[in-house]
Design a protein that fits this description.
The complex is a heterodimer of chains A (78) and B (359).
Chain A (H helix, E strand, L loop, with lengths): L1 E6 L4 H17 L3 E6 L2 H6 L7 E4 L2 E5 L5 H9 L1
Parallel strand pairs in A: 1-2
Antiparallel strand pairs in A: 1-3, 3-4
Helix pairs in contact in A: 1-3
Chain B lengths: L22 H20 L1 H12 L7 H31 L4 H8 L6 H12 L7 H10 L4 H13 L2 H11 L1 H24 L8 H5 L14 H36 L6 H4 L6 H9 L6 H13 L4 H13 L2 H7 L5 H25 L1
Helix pairs in contact in B: 2-3, 3-8, 3-11, 5-7, 5-9, 7-9, 8-9, 8-14, 9-17, 11-14, 13-15, 13-17, 14-15, 15-17
Classes of the chains: A alpha+beta (78), B mainly alpha (359).
């Protein structure tokens, strides 16, 4: 199952990212586990310095910006 | 994607849409648009005068006439400038990232490191909501504490919105001086904090963190992608900031039209030596983005307030923001936050006096 982690302390951009990711997962129907990481320690430990960030199966796909639904869908396909 | 307004987060990184349009199509639209921009910009004084005194039929020299003309001239002027500059800076920012900046700063010595760090603070896309991970990321990767502070001071203070507005309303000299002194404050304050050796005043868990390996995105942006990034930046920044700009210009117009000349000279003029420290202190609890503050500052100055006092106030409002200090509380002990505010405050104070003396 695809593991998606969204990093963000909770500003509007991070909430927007979560919304986009969940929408994309629902649309694609893929089996994916979506986790929101807001804890600063965890975000830092992952090496993320620009939020929001999205990690798919351990690989950072989006850094410092809100991804578009199309982008997320493309990650789920690959 | 709908334009999002985020009143609390200062994120500047936009969402770039992958579109099939190549660079050619952007140039095709962009060049005539740029020409139109210049044409409108050049005619703004005439346009605003015509609108105020012919279309609206107001009396030249009257309070209302002055105020309305000011508003109708400044509003399109500021927005034209904002759009162009935010776009340009967006293009520049597409080449930078905190990850790349950290790689450039790791292990640098002080002084040179402070200078590079402050300069990078201007061009690196930085969101105040990621201040904590960025701080820890920098420090744990070997960027000296003082150098990190130079970055954190420069980034919010020397933002392109402030510079555009200062240029548009005061001319390039004032904007240039703000840029130069802003850099000097960031470099000097960061250097001083570094020299004080206050690493033990960061929270304990920060020092225990080991640097995570650098996270970088593999695909680089194409030229068309950079244009989209910059366009998105315009949509987001101008989209977030416009009510403040409008309000600020409106207040400025009111002051311009209605306050008697030299009304504020007594309070904020050069002769009042205590006006600079007062301005700095007043700025600390106030949190506004540069957009709202600058037009008000213009009107204040037109009424006799000294440039140094007013700029010190502006720097204090932007650089010493309570929300950001609260965010940094997670990684800094209160003593260090106090030192940070104190050192930066003194720096701004000196800038204020310097401006008042020299200009």
């Amino acid at each position: 199952m695809t593991q998606i982690k969204m990093f963000g302390p909770g500003c509007a951009k991070c909430r927007q990212t979560e919304k986009v990711v969940r929408e994309a997962v629902a649309t694609s129907g893929a089996a994916a586990e979506v986790v929101k990481v807001s804890d600063m320690l965890e975000i830092t430990a992952a090496g993320v310095m620009s939020t929001p960030a999205v990690m798919v199966d351990g690989k950072i796909m989006c850094l410092g910006k809100v991804p578009t639904k199309a982008e997320v869908l493309s990650w789920l396909v690959s | 994607m709908s334009a999002d307004r985020q009143p609390t987060c200062a994120c500047a990184a936009p969402a770039a849409k992958p579109s099939p349009a190549g660079l050619g199509r952007y140039l095709l639209w962009g060049l005539p648009l740029l020409a139109a921009w210049f044409a409108v910009y050049r005619h703004l004084p005439d346009l605003s005068r015509w609108l105020t005194y012919h279309l609206l039929g107001l009396t030249p020299g009257s309070h209302l006439g002055e105020a309305v003309e000011f508003f109708l001239y400044d509003t399109p002027k500021v927005f034209l400038l904002l759009t162009l500059v935010v776009f340009g800076v967006g293009l520049v920012r597409s080449y930078f990232s905190p990850e790349r900046t950290r790689a450039m700063l790791a292990g640098r010595r002080e002084a040179a490191g402070n200078m590079l760090s402050a300069s990078l603070g201007i061009v690196t896309p930085f969101c105040s909501c990621s201040a904590v991970p960025l701080f820890i990321g920098f420090v744990s990767a070997g960027v000296p504490l003082g150098v990190t502070f130079s970055f954190l001071i420069a980034a919010p203070m020397i933002n392109e919105v402030a510079l555009v507005l200062l240029y548009g309303l005061f001319g390039w000299k004032v904007a240039g001086l703000y840029l130069a002194t802003g850099l000097m404050v960031a470099i000097a304050a960061g250097w001083v904090i570094g020299r004080l050796g206050l690493e033990h005043w960061t929270e304990d868990w920060v020092r225990q963190m080991r640097a995570a390996p650098g996270v970088m995105l593999e695909d680089r942006l194409s030229p068309a992608g950079r244009v989209e990034y910059a366009l998105q930046a315009v949509r987001e920044i101008v989209g977030r900031v416009w009510p403040y700009v409008l309000a600020g210009i409106a207040v400025g117009a009111g002051i311009h039209g209605y306050l008697p000349q030299d009304f504020l000279a007594g309070i904020m003029g050069k002769s009042a030596w205590w006006s600079v420290p007062l301005a700095v202190l007043l700025g600390i609890p106030m949190y506004a983005n540069a957009a709202g503050v600058v037009p008000v500052i213009q009107a204040l100055m037109a009424k006799g307030a000294a440039l140094g006092t007013v700029l010190a106030f502006m720097m204090s409002v932007i650089a010493l923001s309570l929300p950001e200090m609260l965010i940094l509380r997670k990684v800094l002990k209160p003593r260090l936050i106090a030192v940070f505010a104190g050192v930066v405050g003194v720096g701004i104070l000196l800038v204020g006096y310097l401006f008042n003396l020299v200009l």
